[in-house]
Amino acid sequence: MKWERDGVGEGSRITPAHRAARVSWRPSAGPAPGRLGAAGPEAHVTEPLVKLIVMATRGWLLPGLLVSLLCYQVQNGTIVLAQPPTTGPAAATRAQGTGEAKLAAARQALTGSQKDAARARGLLQEIIDQDQATLQAGSLAYVYVYLGYLEDRAGARAAATGWYQKALGAPDSDPGIRQCAEYGLKQPLTWIRHLDGTSAPARPGAPKSRPPAKGYVATDQPPADLVPASTLSAPDQRKNFDFLCQAIDETYADFELKGIDWEEVQPRYRAQLQPGLSADEFYRLLFRLVNELKDAHSWLQNYHVAVPSSAPELTVDLLQGKPFVVAVSAGSEAARLGAKPGSEVLTVDGLPFEKKVEALRPLLRACSTERAFRREACRQLLTGERGTSVAIRLRAPDAREEVLTLRRTGTLTPAAPPACPFELTRQRFVQFAREPSGLGYIRVVSFEGRGEVADEFDRALEALRAAPGLILDIRNNRGGFGPQHMVGRFLTKPTLCAIGYRKNGPGHHDLRRQDDLLDPTGPWQYTCPVVLLVNDVTGSAADLFACYLRSAKRVLTVGTTTHGNLAGVAAYAVLPCGLVVRISNGYVCDAQGKPIEGTGNEPDIAVDPTVADFLAGKDPVLEKAVKVLNEKLGREQSGS
To answer: Distance from the CA of 345 to the CA of which of 108, 415, 519, 558 falls in 20 to 30 A?
Structure first.
């Protein structure tokens, strides 16, 4: 059960800032997909009077608060206090101080369906730049959440999560706005009750959303329960195909960046709309069409092309561009037949590696760079239906060649990261230790944990506070959510860390610039030398982490060039048939203006592990980082 407050009257001792937010207390139910509120969808209560008593006894309401001021109503089985937060010109006049007046005006601009997002954004940014001292206690968190809400509505998740992190660090914030920020860190926050109306989100089990009659493109997440039509006539297929082609043409941001001739691509795929094409065959055609964008952040959102995931019980990975066996399960058929780590895979079912990669291309989702796609294709090299067999020609480390026929009895296993030569303190997302020479070492396995990653990183950094130098390892980190808080731990002043471009019109060159200025975060900043380890799996939020730190000139990078998938923001094409297609409508450059999408973050010192390194159990990237960092510290100590 949950009690939800949606604003209270002037008789309460809750501040005006508290009145501006929807606050929810919920015991367990996670947020449902689709429409979003500041703290998740409503749960259902059956004892409203008990909840009123609980609020009073816990000090949330004055003991003598008049019931007439509460003015509650029931929506979808949820008790909701109906008095809305105070907005409008009168609210701005009553607000105390310039900052509060601007906050009230920004709230007014964001209220209702016809929002003036540009005005609200300008006012909120002015508050941050000029008027923080005139805000009431707790109001700064509202400024940050509203900015995150604006970014989420524009599809800019990386920027949005940065604001929510700031909101959680703002002083004196009330529980409601903190829950807004926490929710925004879990998934896009595009609906807030006091800004978007008082209708409660649909209850679980409500009828599914119907596909639109004509289709549309939006920057908000479409309803999560849309399902593509299971049958489509030939005219309907042409109609949906043409709609998607136009949506991509007007929405996608990176045609020129990637040298894509969309006028050439469209007719090539339109010619494949043959009579008798099933709905599944049509969706797979659209899957390949979207893959032409070579964009890891553009995909069919509610239709998935099935790829078999069974494989023999061995793992294959790329080493210097070639596929090698890197692990063989003990006691497996592969082990019994003599497969050994370090063996090069020459052919798969008679196909050389390069031809097998091309055979996989229509089945796998696109990557933003060819090097990243080749690694993913290598990971999928031996997959197929469970119980089938695959013939593999191997060249063992002693140069002996043999063909092994192996049954696909296991599941696809990703290659493990290089073994760390020293003991690590392991958390869910962040691992850390003191390297034997005294340097600090932090490995961020993933950025998927939102606030949890930042918390674990702070604990690791605190444990290594006295380390004279630090190694950050984000190899094999495929991304997740915004790393702004972690970057701020290495900054001593506001710093331009990236430049974003977002589509603002239908033309291929209709883009607007947005600078990504990051502030210091945390109770203290780490100012000693830092080396960052990267490879071609490092992507998305991990690519952004590398971009930020490189732009801030806070790290020396060692390893290989990152994936290079950093589109930044997205739009969603909802086709008349109900198919949802995510389309990147922006991209991110470093502070010098070099795009990361399609190119990647190049290392300052290139180190590409060899087969010999693998067989010897060496990690040459880490070894190079330790050597370079200790040499730098030695020069600093000697004054040279």
So the answer is: 558
**One domain, residues 432 and 398:** no
Distance (Å, whole) CA 423 – CA 566: 33
Euclidean distance between CA atoms 488 and 506, whole angstroms: 35
Nearest residue to 457 (alpha-carbon basis) of 435, 479, 472: 472
Q: Point out which residues pair with 498 in neighbouring strands.
A: 516
Token representation of residue 467: 């380390």
Which residues of the chain, if any, have pLDDT below 70? 1-97, 112-114, 196-208, 568, 640
Identify whether the C-beta of residue 486 lies closer than 8 Å to the C-beta of residue 457.
Answer: yes
The beta-carbon contacts of 244-247 under 8 Å, at least 24 apart in sequence, are: 244/286, 244/289, 244/573, 244/575, 244/579, 244/581, 245/270, 245/289, 247/215, 247/217, 247/573, 247/581, 247/583
The answer to whether residues 435 and 339 belong to one domain is no
Q: How far apart are CA 348 and CA 352, in angstroms?
A: 7
Residues 387 and 436 in one domain: no
State the first-to-last Cα distance of the chain, in angstroms, to the nearest integer: 66
- In this structure, the chain runs to a length of 640
The domain containing residue 541 runs over which residues?
Answer: 425-638
| Res 121: pLDDT | 85
Q: Which of 156, 172, 206 is the last residue of a domain?
A: 206
Which residues contact residue 395 at a Cβ distance below 8 angstroms, ignoring those fewer than 6 apart?
Answer: 343, 344, 346, 401
Eight-state DSSP code of residue 130:
I
pLDDT of residue 461: 98
A 10 A CB-CB count for 424 gives 13
- Residue 210: what pLDDT? 74
* Rounded Cα–Cα distance for residues 252 and 626 (Å): 42
CA separation for the pair 304, 347 (Å, rounded): 28
Residue pLDDT, tens place only, 43-86: 333 334 333 333 333 333 333 332 222 333 333 333 333 333 33
Total-model pTM: 0.69
**CA R_g for the chain:** 27
Total structural domains within the chain: 3
- The verdict on residue 396 lying in a domain is yes
DSSP code of residue 210: P
Write down the pLDDT at residue 84. 34
Distance of CA 578 to the CA centre of its chain: 24
Region of 379 please: left (phi>0), alpha (psi -120 to 50) or beta: alpha
Distance (Å, rounded) from C-alpha 191 to C-alpha 250? 26
Q: Are residues 487 and 365 located together in one domain of the fold? A: no
What is the distance between the alpha carbons of residues 174 and 193, in angstroms, rounded to a whole number? 17
Residue 448: per-residue pLDDT: 87
Rounded CA-CA distance 479/416 in Å is: 16
Those residues with Cβ within 8 angstroms of residue 68's Cβ, 6 or more apart along the chain or in another chain: none
Q: Do 389 and 443 sit in the same domain of this protein?
A: no
Q: Helices 451-463 and 157-169 sit at what angle, rounded to 10 degrees?
A: 60
Q: What is the pLDDT of residue 197?
A: 53
Q: Which two tokens stand for residue 389?
A: 């067999």
Phi, psi angle pair for 17, to nearest 5°: -65, -40
SS3 430: strand
Residue 251 tokens, joined: 């929405």
Residue 367 and residue 493 share a domain: no
Q: Where are the beta strands (DSSP E) in 277-400?
A: 299-300, 310-311, 314-319, 322-328, 344-348, 351-352, 389-395
Strands (E), 226-313: 299-300, 310-311
